[in-house]
Write a structure and sequence with these properties.
Layout lengths: L9 E2 L5 H4 L22 E5 L7 E6 L2 E8 L2 E5 L2 E5 L3 E5 L5 E4 L6 E7 L13 H4 L10 E3 L2 H20 L4 H22 L10 H17 L6 H8 L3 H12 L3 H19 L4 H7 L5 H12 L3 H8 L1
Parallel strand pairs: 1-3
Antiparallel strand pairs: 2-9, 3-8, 4-7, 4-9, 5-6, 5-8, 7-10
Pfam family, one: HTH_18
GO molecular function, one term: DNA-binding transcription factor activity
Keywords: DNA-binding, Transcription, Transcription regulation
Length: 310
């Protein structure tokens, strides 16, 4: 009989608070302080004050937008790494692995979550990913905007906060409209910067790279070899390695290992499975192999990582 292990939790908006917020915050902005009168189903917005500085790797079942005003932080989204500076926007979509770390002491900004159906009244016939390319797997998930663009977005952020404060007629609909306008401002900057174009390789190679990333996200637990992905993509392993390295700076094999590491870190941090259980869960032949793999990728053992992060 096959053993059952705890899976990495996929957080919803309603059970995510303890992961991303400190117990105490003095700021009453948005949903910083728990208040049932300020709740809007399928939506939450926060300021950076009271934010947990290190979280993840983890998964959620909602969309997320982050706005950095001052300070800096590093963010991992899937296999990509981004550095937030003042004026950085970032986006994640449901079931995407993400993490934040190296948050500076002077960080200020805002972030918000919304469910996959929250905007259905505003854009009923269009999928979020079709309307806003930064939520698509091949899109650019974090990018800089100008000061003028940032000011426009911050005005909308403050308008959303006023709606939560004032409890006026049509509050929920107004917040949906403001959220749509905010995403639209982000889209305009995205298009202005032509972020759908890739400066490092041809369009066909960029499509190949993104198909590889999508496949790795789906199959990394069962397919560990570059040649397996090359076969699925109909290209040679050497060609695939070259395209991945052009886009990520690492080999395809390293990218696959990085996804396994993210899964291992999540299991160590967010479940009580033993190291041996996690080793078998991730399809390693024995705990020793898993320990060696984890130490090669992080310079510490799984137990040391768990002790530092739980």
């Amino acid at each position: 009989m096959k053993e059952k292990f705890n899976k990495i939790p996929q957080y919803s908006i309603t059970n995510f608070r303890h992961v991303h917020r400190l117990t105490y915050t003095s700021s009453s902005f948005g949903n910083n302080i728990p208040d049932k009168t300020r709740l809007v189903e399928g939506f939450e917005i926060y300021s950076g004050e009271g934010m947990v500085h290190t979280k993840g790797p983890l998964k959620s079942n909602f969309y997320r937008m982050g706005i950095t005003v001052n300070g800096s932080l590093d963010m991992g989204i899937g296999l990509n790494k981004y550095n937030h500076q003042p004026g950085t926007l970032s986006f994640t979509f449901p079931n995407q692995v993400f993490s934040t770390y190296n948050v500076s002491d002077d960080i200020t900004g805002y972030y918000l979550f919304f469910s996959d159906t929250f905007l259905s009244d505003i854009i009923p016939s269009v999928k979020i990913v079709d309307e806003f390319p930064f939520f698509y797997i091949s899109g650019t998930a974090a990018f800089q905007i100008t000061n003028e663009e940032l000011e426009k977005i911050l005005v909308i952020v403050n308008n959303i906060n006023l709606e939560l404060d004032q409890h006026q007629t049509g509050r929920d609909t107004a917040i949906k409209m403001y959220l749509y306008l905010m995403l639209l401002e982000a889209k305009r900057s995205y298009e202005r910067q032509k972020l759908e174009d890739n400066e490092y390789c041809s369009y066909d190679n960029y499509k190949l790279f993104n198909r590889f990333i999508k496949l790795v996200n789906e199959y990394f637990l069962t397919k560990r070899l570059v040649k397996e992905y090359a076969q699925m993509l109909g290209v040679g392993a050497n060609h695939l390695n070259r395209i991945v390295k052009e886009n990520m700076g690492i080999t395809a094999s390293k990218a696959i290992k990085e996804m396994i590491l993210q899964e291992a870190k999540s299991l160590l941090k967010y479940t009580d499975n033993s190291v041996a259980e996690i080793a078998y869960q991730l399809d390693f032949s024995d705990p020793t192999s898993f320990n060696r793999f984890f130490k090669d990728g992080t310079n510490e053992t799984p137990l040391v990582y768990r002790s530092k992060n739980t």
